[in-house]
Automatic annotation (TrEMBL):
Top-rank taxon, per record: Bacteria
Source organism of the structure: Streptomyces hyderabadensis
Protein name per Swiss-Prot or TrEMBL: DUF1963 domain-containing protein
Record-linked Pfam families: DUF1963 (PF09234), HEAT_2 (PF13646)
InterPro entries: DUF1963, YwqG-like_sf
Length: 842
């Protein structure tokens, strides 16, 4: 020890092996207290332990602002930095930062505890749990090691949970034991936060070892009310799930959905009997709303269904509550789907990828999944595209040691949100996908039954509901045969009123058992089943069966007559909307009133199907005596001359090709309609329509529109692109309002904003054209149909309720064009009254 150190140590000498420079470093750290005349007391307390009341006294004194500089590593207002430098020659914030690293690298536990107590007293933060002196000290250490210097690296290596526990013991930190105080400090989260750097001290090998030695205390701290970091703790415990099995079992029914998922993901790497053993008690004790994950896991394990049955049949004088009993019974009943003849249909052998390197790569990657918890792995959708049979992925997970491989892959394919897609893979299920996925589900009919129960209600509240019935029916349609054990459930769906009845009937085909049930329902007393059976059997060609009126599934008086007449495949979208609206909490009467606003339309299909109803672009065919549509402008400065700007032809529509009843508009039965527009934002778009009655001779007309086309170099470039598209094909569709509701609409429909938002999400990626129906919303600019009633100069205001959407085209980037007309003018063939609007966000 140097002479200077010995002199400063006084009656409380430091250990003989105390590093040279520690006292000087402490002096530099505490130098900001000199201008407040508080240095001597603080220095003596930290170095020697003198004056145990010093921290509290300093915390209440005028030294606090200067103390904040100590807590801030020497940084502070410029005038205070100058004052400290004047009182302590050679001092600077940079010197204070370096000195702090020396203290944290070399000081013994007792000195560190006193330094932490002083920091806790001097900090200006509220004295919450997060600001206990041990927490303040830990935060200060982590702040000090943010640099990449050698000193910072040495401090990082020294500061482990074990050292923190020593410091807690030396300083008497709040807590039942030093280990308890340490874990409580490292796992604390301030209200409103979801991350704390203190946890980083547990995210190391030393942290893993500390957690492994103190599993009992860890369980006590983590499961305490309000304790944070439970999800991250679960991920760390997954590295040694057997040692932490008690904690993981407790967290499997945690109040937080994400924590439950992580705990079950960690347990999945243990052998099945151990999982059954620790999860079994939850069947009778856990809150029923936290049981689904436990029940799903037990269903995946040998003996799992047996313990569920035991819980149902136990006669210990403590009967199960009704909700718990229903959940257990529903899960237990699925066990029968795996038993008996016809339970599992034949499946082809697993088809491995032809690339051996891919298999090796897959095994290597899957082995790392253990440490990624419930998130599986990012980018897995790219792997799936390279695997001809998803059971390859399932088998790789099994080899890696997980017991939930079937369910992990099934969830991945159906309800999990995947990477950049931002939505489930099953939501965009293609025939090729179904062909690669179905064998997995054919081997697990109990999983199929789970997904056939309905929406994924365990999703995050901010995520769109996942229609698992729709997804699963598309997959089951690929089965080589329908498992006999699933026929009752599929038949129940087929005889219902939901849109899923159509897919369920396709799956069942002409299954004799299902057809017999349908015949029985036809003579039954339940009205919905009778109507559904009549619709189904009539579609199968059953003699003497009369189908119900279209739209029966929505109830009498809900849909407008024109909408009821739409094909069932089109009304499918309204049923999907209704289910999601009810799932979002909109009252059923209000949902039905909104459905009454539904209107039929024709629209482009994503696959370009449907009958040809017109042609895009030129040639321009008009009667000889019909003028080319356009606008005439007076030439500036020359009163007797005018300039005519011809409009551009966009579509020639053949009314004779438009199916009767495809819209609720009073369209002519034949003839052609030419739609024009000048898509120019400056000063505004112009356009109109010309109707040519059937039989009127036409000839090709030269036309040279002269305007600046939005997002095109010239009108000629736009026309060339339209001609390349050529035929316009449209299929039946249905529409609901999506533009912002006005006050009257809100008064009639209090949930109008929610309802229009839900409908806006109902899309199959269809094309850009629409005839009839409601106008599509664009950036909440408003309803262009009602907006068409605004008068031009000198005209009287017309009734917005008289106007209808004739056509709309989303043909330009970030914009939509609308052609609107008063209904009575449409009926009178007054197409000169067509108005054109363009909503754009250039």
């Amino acid at each position: 020890m140097s002479q200077n150190q010995q002199e400063n140590a006084g009656d409380f000498p430091l250990p003989a092996d105390a590093p040279t420079g520690l006292v000087a470093a402490l002096r530099t750290c505490l130098a900001p207290l000199r201008p407040a005349q508080a240095f001597d007391d603080a220095f003596g307390y930290v170095l020697h332990g003198t004056g145990p009341g010093v921290p509290a006294a300093l915390g209440e004194s005028a030294a606090t602002p200067w103390g904040e500089m100590v807590c801030g590593g020497g940084h502070g207002p410029q005038d205070r930095v100058a004052a400290v430098a004047e009182s302590e020659p050679g001092w600077s914030p940079q010197a204070a930062e370096a000195a702090r690293l020396v203290v944290y690298r070399d000081a013994p536990a007792g000195l560190l505890a006193r330094f932490g107590r002083l920091l806790g007293a001097l900090t200006a933060r509220d004295r919450s749990d997060s600001a206990t002196w041990l927490g303040v000290l830990t935060d200060d250490v982590l702040k000090a090691v943010e640099s990449t210097s050698t000193g910072a690296e040495q401090v990082r290596a020294r500061w482990t949970p074990d050292l923190l526990s020593e410091v807690a013991r030396a300083g008497g930190a709040p807590g039942r034991t030093p280990v308890h105080a340490t874990l409580a400090t490292l796992l604390y989260l301030d209200p409103g936060t979801n991350w704390n750097r203190r946890f980083d001290l547990l995210g190391t090998e030393a942290g893993d070892a500390f957690l492994a030695r103190h599993t009992d205390v860890l369980t006590e701290v983590v499961t305490a009310p309000g304790r944070g970091h439970r999800r991250r703790v679960t991920l760390r415990c997954a590295r040694d799930a057997e040692r932490h099995i008690g904690l993981l079992a407790a967290l499997a029914v945690d109040e937080d959905r994400a924590v439950r998922a992580e705990a079950l993901a960690a347990l999945a790497w243990l052998d099945g009997p151990r999982q059954v053993e620790v999860l079994r008690p939850h069947l009778r004790t856990a809150p029923p709303d936290r049981l689904p994950g436990v029940l799903e896991r037990l269903a995946d394990l040998d003996g799992g269904y047996a313990v569920i049955r035991d819980a149902l049949e136990a006669g210990d004088g403590h009967p199960l509550d009704a909700e718990r009993a229903r959940s257990l019974r529903r899960t237990a009943d699925r066990a029968a789907l795996l038993e008996g003849p016809g339970a599992v249909v034949p499946v082809p052998p697993v088809e491995p990828p032809g690339d051996a390197g891919l298999l090796a790569e897959l095994d290597t990657r899957v082995a790392a999944v253990r440490l990624e918890g419930d998130d599986f792995w990012h980018g897995v959708e790219q792997w799936l595209a390279r695997i001809p049979d998803v059971r390859v992925l399932r088998d790789a997970l099994r080899r890696a040691g997980t017991t939930d491989a079937d369910r992990r892959v099934a969830a991945l394919l159906t309800v999990r949100i995947i990477g950049a897609l931002g939505r489930p893979l099953g939501a965009v299920l293609t025939p090729e996908d179904a062909g690669r996925w179905w064998p997995l589900f054919a081997e697990r009919p109990d999983l199929v039954a789970e997904y056939l129960e309905g929406f994924d209600t365990r999703r995050h509240p901010d995520r769109e509901a996942v229609d698992t019935v729709h997804m699963m029916l598309k997959i089951v349609e690929c089965f080589t045969a329908v498992p006999d054990t699933l026929v009752p459930r599929l038949t129940s769906i087929a005889l219902g009123a939901s849109r899923h009845r159509l897919a369920a009937r396709r799956v069942l085909g002409d299954h004799p058992g299902a057809r017999a049930v349908a015949r029985a329902a036809l003579d039954g007393t339940e009205q919905t089943a009778r109507r559904s059976a009549a619709e189904w059997l009539a579609g199968l060609g059953e003699p003497g069966v009369v189908p119900p009126e279209p739209g029966w599934e929505f109830g009498d008086g809900v849909l407008a007559p024109a909408t009821r007449a739409l094909p069932a495949a089109t009304l499918w979208w309204l049923d999907r909307f209704r289910a999601q609206a009810l799932e979002r909490g909109v009252p059923e009467p209000e949902v039905n009133r909104w459905l009454g606003l539904a209107r039929p339309m024709l629209r482009s299909a994503p696959d370009g199907s449907g009958p040809v109803v017109g042609r895009l672009g030129g040639p321009l065919m008009l009667p000889a005596d019909a003028p080319t549509p356009g606008d005439t402008y007076e030439t500036a400065g020359e009163e007797d001359e005018a300039y005519t700007s011809e409009h551009q032809l966009i579509l020639t529509l053949d009314f004779a090709a438009v199916p009767k009843g495809a819209t609720d508009l009073p369209l002519p039965p034949d003839g052609t309609l030419l739609l024009f527009v000048d898509a120019d934002l400056e000063p505004w778009p112009a356009g109109g329509a010309v109707y040519v009655p059937a039989g009127v001779p036409v000839e090709e007309r030269e036309s040279s529109p002269d305007y600046e086309v939005y997002e095109y170099d010239s009108p000629e470039e736009l026309d060339a692109e339209l001609r390349r598209v050529g035929d316009l094909r449209l299929v039946p569709g249905v529409s609901l309002p999506t533009t912002p509701p006005d006050k009257e609409m809100r008064a009639r429909h209090p949930h109008a904003d929610t309802l229009r938002e839900i409908w806006s999400e109902q899309t199959d990626g269809g094309g850009s054209w629409q005839l009839g129906g409601h106008a599509a919303n664009f950036d909440d600019y408003g309803d262009p149909v009602a907006g068409s009633a605004d008068p031009d100069d000198g005209e009287l205001l017309s009734d917005p309720g008289n106007w209808v959407l004739l056509a709309q085209w989303a043909g330009f980037p970030m914009s939509i064009l609308y052609w609107t007309i008063p209904r009575q003018d449409l009926a009178a063939r007054r197409f000169d009254r067509v108005a054109v609007q363009m909503h754009a966000n250039p």
